[in-house]
Amino acid sequence: MSIAVLHGSTRDGGNTEGLAQLVLDGIPHTEIKLRDKKILPIHDQRHDEGGFDAVDDDYDEIIREVLKHDVLVFTSPVYWYGISGTLKNFIDRWSQSLRDSSYDFKGTIAQKKAYVIVVGGDNPRIKALPLILQLKHTFDFVGLGFEGYIIGKASKPGDIVNDSRAAVEAAWLNDELKAQV
Amino acid sequence: MSIAVLHGSTRDGGNTEGLAQLVLDGIPHTEIKLRDKKILPIHDQRHDEGGFDAVDDDYDEIIREVLKHDVLVFTSPVYWYGISGTLKNFIDRWSQSLRDSSYDFKGTIAQKKAYVIVVGGDNPRIKALPLILQLKHTFDFVGLGFEGYIIGKASKPGDIVNDSRAAVEAAWLNDELKAQV
Amino acid sequence: MSIAVLHGSTRDGGNTEGLAQLVLDGIPHTEIKLRDKKILPIHDQRHDEGGFDAVDDDYDEIIREVLKHDVLVFTSPVYWYGISGTLKNFIDRWSQSLRDSSYDFKGTIAQKKAYVIVVGGDNPRIKALPLILQLKHTFDFVGLGFEGYIIGKASKPGDIVNDSRAAVEAAWLNDELKAQV
Amino acid sequence: MSIAVLHGSTRDGGNTEGLAQLVLDGIPHTEIKLRDKKILPIHDQRHDEGGFDAVDDDYDEIIREVLKHDVLVFTSPVYWYGISGTLKNFIDRWSQSLRDSSYDFKGTIAQKKAYVIVVGGDNPRIKALPLILQLKHTFDFVGLGFEGYIIGKASKPGDIVNDSRAAVEAAWLNDELKAQV
């Protein structure tokens, strides 16, 4: 079983990545930091005669890499009660993948499992629940199994170490993933 | 009372803008199409010593224009059960505005009213509710009054004319706004 | 097409029933006021060897009546951000119906359509959304189609007449139902 | 610090109470099993001239007992994606307490902290989130601090022991509460 971690945060070594490290500790995985990639917002051409134009950015390369793995871990800071615009742009582009005949996006991603790790500063265990429900709908649409999520609480750099509850949940998920590798 | 409409859709003349037209029919307003602007994803520098670096794009100009109006109408197609990445990037940048000492973002926006218009294809009156809850949290955070929302259902170009329920809600909101202008 | 309206409110002539009247105006339907019936809370015996004991109340008679109709309209005031305990007790008892071999509860209800009308006093178009999502899960579980909902705002007796938005939505649904009768 | 646990389940020794036992292990607390009490559904008389009539059941005694404690733990099986009708009836009656001049319900409960423990069989970590959001609104209305929740997954009697994630969360909360006693 191989694992890809998609980081939606926009700052190095932030709390979300800190929590993800606890989850992935000692587990081989591929890290993809979306902030280091160029991913343009989707231009909705679903209904254009010729379909989507090719886009000159890193999206295609990333999605092909992602689809080589069995387990996808999506991580994002909670920005304004949602995933970051950086991660949202990446997911928005799935609409393009759904219409790309050069590979079977839906058939392939439907065989995988997803986990979500998010960290927010403003009562995230309540206020990030709509975010979780959105991702549930998103994963359902493509048949991707939503296996679990961890919501951490942190604001200032390094704060995440003080969230003892997120820590025990991360340790639990670490065990869970190790048992599957 | 002046109205600014912020369009988050990525295609000209789409269903979301069609529904917005019904709402704004005969009402003077400023249109801002985010897809025609350059808005970079936020780079989270909230905790950097020097704060946020200046960003070379259209965000500042747009937010200053927005803040001149009394009523803000946010419109977005429902992309993957959330607002478009284009609109999300715009809102993410509010974190930068909150720390910009050249104007009082929070104090100013807290005096305004917001409406939301979204259109989706997959059971949006249920599956877009997390999106509405997110925007509620977002508006609450800055003190912006959330006065109402309309959820339309449409997929193919032009479909929105078949959503008779969205049409009566749009007519109602049109009356409401006209009474305030 | 026949319609049954299940009222979950606990007071005569309240705002919820007022809004329901607008929706059903001129449309033949069966009214069931749960407050006038005796419905005990469920005693969970799903896992008892002998299954559920017979319960001496009005539930069985009501559910059999309900199942004779094609369209079910559930109405409830928003009590503490949920449906009333009176309506909740009724729905909780569906667990008993699911195991009652004297009729095919799930097979029968799955052929019907449901509408929901709720009225609350505290920002119900936002704060009653979790209630709507709960009923969506509930209807999905038994295969009952969730065709639509109307959320009204009112507190004091008679207040509902001031909710012009709920009124246009009710008129729309009235047309919709009339076209189906 | 004293703790009251309000059980909303309707069966002895069920999974929800099993999970609650892990949370409360070794911690003195008062147990209140609502199923053993008589609590009538509310009859909404908020707008009657004379207010609410006295009700001949156990509600008053229970709420007075509850208010003697500092921490309130609400437990409920997830019935139809909500709290049980038994617990809902109890909470619905708070509307009566809010108007009872013989004690200061809101002023008193606002000084307390609440935890929630729920257990469901159908993907509860997603499908019980609306339930959590409802209780958040409920607690906010009376100023009761919502300190945390645990969602367990179980269906058949005894199943809860297989939910290793709920177990680590329960152990965490047990530590947390012990530190406060």
Automatic annotation (TrEMBL), chains A, B, C, D:
Under the heading Pfam families, the entry gives: FMN_red
* Entry keywords, A to Z: Flavoprotein, FMN
Q: Where is the NADPH-dependent FMN reductase-like domain?
A: 1-123
Signal peptide positions (record):
none
Q: Which Gene3D superfamilies match?
A: 3.40.50.360
UniProt xrefs under InterPro entries:
Flavoprotein-like_sf, FMN_Rdtase-like_dom, ISF_SsuE-like
The protein's superkingdom reads: Bacteria
Q: What is this protein called?
A: NAD(P)H-dependent oxidoreductase
Q: Which organism is it from?
A: Paenibacillus segetis
